[in-house]
Specification:
By secondary structure, the protein is an alpha+beta fold. The protein has 4 helices and 5 strands; from the N terminus they run H-H-E-E-H-H-E-E-E.
Length: 189
């Protein structure tokens, strides 16, 4: 029989489960991401509509300090106005690790054929990676997991249609590290 736990104690079996989850191969966590990601990447663009987005995009932020539930430790997903982005955001917030923010961008890359060592953790990762989305789309994965004024790291996946005469819009940086970037937490359209 277990004794009553102090709020600051973590049971040994919970700790063991957390360690085992951390050691789970990145490729295993990628398997669940690939199907919803593919649906998002291949969603149709309603190009003829005047208000249609010129890109599908989702931006996921890991906010707050680790295990600070009272201070707002959470995931926040922002997205373009199309249904595919709304659906992927809802899926990501329910199926993404709070603790290991490097897992999701690696899973996205694994879905695109990249391979990584399984027992690694990448911190302070900042990159813009162009992905092959097929003959009709270009994709860009923006990653900014570096230190900022607020405890916030983020990724954004953008899918652009390839059409003759259509110029690919540029997306602003994820964080305000320059005059061109939106304020942290700004809503993109």
């Amino acid at each position: 029989m277990r004794s009553k736990l102090d709020r600051n104690q973590i049971p040994a079996d919970w700790l063991l489960a957390a360690v085992l989850a951390a050691m789970a191969p990145a490729s295993a966590s990628a398997a669940g991401v690939c199907a919803p990601l593919s649906t998002f990447e291949h969603a149709a663009f309603a190009i003829e509509a005047a208000t249609s987005p010129s890109a599908h995009w989702v931006e996921l932020h890991w906010l707050g300090n680790w295990l600070d539930f009272g201070g707002g430790w959470r995931l926040e997903c922002r997205h373009s106005s199309d249904g595919a982005s709304t659906t992927l955001c809802a899926w990501l917030t329910g199926n993404t690790s709070f603790e290991f923010h490097d897992r999701l961008p690696r899973a996205i890359l694994i879905c695109h054929g990249y391979r990584f060592p399984d027992l690694s953790y990448w911190d302070d990762w900042k990159a813009q990676i162009e992905l092959s989305g097929g003959p009709a789309v270009d994709e860009v994965l923006d990653i900014d997991q570096t230190a900022h004024k607020t405890p916030d790291v983020a990724i954004r996946l953008t899918v652009f249609p390839i059409e003759e005469g259509r110029v690919r819009q540029s997306m602003p940086p994820l964080f305000r590290n320059s005059d061109e970037a939106p304020e942290n937490g700004a809503n993109l359209n």
